[in-house]
Amino acid sequence: MPVYTRKSRLSKAKRLRLLEHFVAGTTARAAAELVDVNRNTVNRFYFALRTIIAEEMEKAAPLHGEVEVDESYFGGRRKGKRGRGAAGKVPVFGLLKRGGRVYTLPIPNAKAKTLMPIIESRVVPDSIVYTDSFAGYNILDVSSFHHRRIDHGKAFAEGEENKRHINGIENFLESSKTASTQIQRHPAQALLPLPQRMRMALQRRKPQRALPPAVRVGQEGGVA
């Protein structure tokens, strides 16, 4: 963690515990209480980790083979239009290689002139790109990719058509959106990826019980 630890006064044990909480999805508020450090310190530590992850994502090789792409809109529930074009929300574009990595980034809009340069830079030419029927993807029909359009109103049962879906990237974006919304509404629910019984411990103001035994803090400040 060179971005943060170079000037950090945190002990190695506390840095490792914060890293565990970051991976588990613990909020900065709960992690600060669990590790006994200032919340702003946790915020800086988490930000450094996210910076490293973003930098590594940019260095990663382009996706290839069968790639699913889709956009989603983050920002909680609001009155008015939902989905594409919803006001007050941040559009996020996602690309998923089937059986492999995911690449996501916020975008200013979902127009073809915004989406196409991202696809061209993150996907190897001659790959198969699966999309829904949104008009912004029409340009893929005359590109260096093999475009497979999904008709959500039609069910494919067998053969080659059975591959025509974007379930992977849709599920990834929806799960990310749900987790983000729940954490913003209920900061105490710090371990969303973990079983419900662990999250309930946080709601009862007993964050130590929210962690599985393997990562609970020991009596002497180490990892039990």
UniProtKB/TrEMBL annotation:
Region (Disordered): 205-224
Residues in ISXO2-like transposase domain copies: 62-187
TM segment ranges: none
Coiled-coil boundaries: none
InterPro entries the UniProt entry points to: IS1016-like_transposase, Tnp_ISXO2-like
Protein name, as recorded: DDE transposase
Organism listed in the record: Oceanithermus desulfurans NBRC 100063
